[in-house]
Structures are given as C-alpha cells and as structure tokens.
Amino acid sequence: MASASFLDYIYRSVPIHKMFADGWGNPTDLIKLIKFRREMVKRDPVVLLNDHCPFIKEAKIIENNSFVIYSGEFETPVVKLLPELVPLPVRYAQFEMILPKKRQANSCPLCIHMAGTGDHGFWRRRKLLALPLAQQMGIGRSCLRYVTDLFVMGVCLIFESAVLLNWLIKRGNWPLGLTGISLGGHMASLAAACYSKPVAIVPCLSWTTASAVFTQGVMARAIPWNTLEKQCTDELHSSEIYGLLSSQYWNDSEKINSAKNNFRAQKLMHVVMDEFTHLGKFSSPIDPSLAIVVAALNDAYVPRSGVANLNSIWPEAEIRYVNTGHIGGYLFRQSEFRLAICDALQRAAAKYEVVSGNVVKR
C-alpha cells in the first residue's frame, strides 16, 4: 500500500476539538440502535417506512440566468421509529436543491450530496460540486458529543435519503445518485445499501468501514480515549452491549496486559464502528454496477490496510484512485469527483428509466 500523505498528518496536527468528548452515550440507546440496525438492513418495507411520505416544504431562494436554488425541509422519518433518540434540533431534515435553469426541474438528473465531517451548512458542497455540475453538466444536487450521536445521524441520513429519492422519482427526475466526500461518502454508501431501488453511488475518499478511521487513521488523535476507557469499565461493563456485539469481547479484553493503554476503548470502538458502518454488514445496493468509488492512494484518514476490500463486498463496483492523500484529494481533485458523478448517472440513465413513478429496466 502507498505511504500515507504527509499533508494529512500536518493538517490533523492543528489543534481541533475532540470528537465524542462526552463518551459513548447512553448504553440503553446504543443497544436500541444495534437492534434497530439489524432489522433495518433486511429492507423490510414496514421497518423502512416505504409508504411513509412526509410533507416536504420547499421554497425558491436564489435564481439567476444559470441556475435556481431551492431550500426544503421535512420531518425525519426516524421520529416515527425511534422518537426518544432524535433530539429536537435534528427532528427536521433540511436540504438545498440546485437546478440548472436550462433544464426542466422535474426531469433533470439529480445527485444527493451528503455532508462530510465538519461540513455545517451548504456552502462547501454548493461551491465545489453542485454549482459546477449544474452550470457545466446540467446536474442538480441536494459536534458529535457522543459516539451514539454518529449512529443516530447515520440512521437519520439513510431514511432521509430514501424520502428524497422517492420524492424525486415521483416528480419524474432521473437519473438519481448519492454522493459525498469522506464521512459523507460513507453515508452515501450506507444509504444506497439500504435503498430499495437502483441508484447511482459515488462515494469519494471513503472505504468499507469507519472502524479503521477512528482507531488507526489520523482521526484517532481526536478521540478522548481516556474518557472512553473509563466508561468501558464503569458504565458499560454490565450492559447488554458486549453480548450483542461479541461474546468474546470482554473476556478477551480482560486477558490483555493492563499496561496497554485504553485497550478496551479501542477494541470496543473498532467493534461498534464495524457493527454500524461496515458495508459487509449491510445488503448490497440493488445494482452495485452503478457505483463508482473514488479513493485516495495515500489516505491517512481512511486507512485501507487490513480492511476489507470494496470489491470483495461490491464486486461490480468500479474503483478509481487519485494519487494523493485525503486533504489533497478534497482540495485539488474535485473535478475527478464531478466526473465520477456524471459517469455514474449516465450508467443509471442507460440501464433504467422512470415509468409511472417506478424505476424499471430499459
């Protein structure tokens, strides 16, 4: 494997806020999320609320000669399923939709772009990907205190993506895709894996699991391991979590030399992240041949060494590599991300069409 990017290490060396500063979160919430995820991946239409169509409020906010920007919001479907886990600030999903002026709003291709780590708001995605796609290619787009916050966010994004995709299909928009960079790319993969229809998928600067990201990559430096280790012993030891995740987890941890700092926390982080984010624990997308993955050869944020290869999980997916690191990819390879989005959408358009609100093969 290529050496990790020096720029990635330099960038991460800048002092930043800690992730998961308050620890794992409520053990009861984590147990509920584990059980819910295992039901969700079965694609049961009742569990996934396929018939649930919340009211989507949209409004035009900007218009010029090239494009129109709409804002929209709707209540996240997870409120119906896990109401006690959805805090008020995220009860309503907000999105921004950018449409090229020269295309009909209900017929142009659209790609939902998931936010990456630290991407609060729409500015970065609007400037770097959405507006160039809308103007050049006629395509439109739309602080974690606890570890459990990340998983609640993931569940919400999976359901909210399905709502938006179903809404766009009913409008007649096709082809449709899911994309994102870094964390956003992985969330796009998970959303596609749970969605019941074929859709283009373009994860950028992500891979098959987040476990290596938080335990091996440079992001591990932002984790308060001492806090998590203490909670492993004090708060989680007697809970149901270990039995759900691995019957051997706690026994194996006890056998490790206590001189190895924070072993329990790092072990549990690895197991929990694999439980919620490993693509091998989810169904494959309906059509993985519509996936184009863009990975960085020298990525120090998303290590691939010792991690399942994407082609072993999605054999039909295409993988494109950029010869740079994570930060270099984000800063200097946006054009290659946009090209992958266009190519994936063209594949979807060539294989499928929308007929009477359904996606069918041509």
Automatic annotation (TrEMBL):
Q: Which organism is it from?
A: Trichinella zimbabwensis
Q: Which residues form a coiled coil?
A: none
InterPro entries registered for this protein in UniProt? AB_hydrolase_fold, ABHD18
The record's section on Pfam families has:
ABHD18
Its name, as the record gives it, is Protein ABHD18
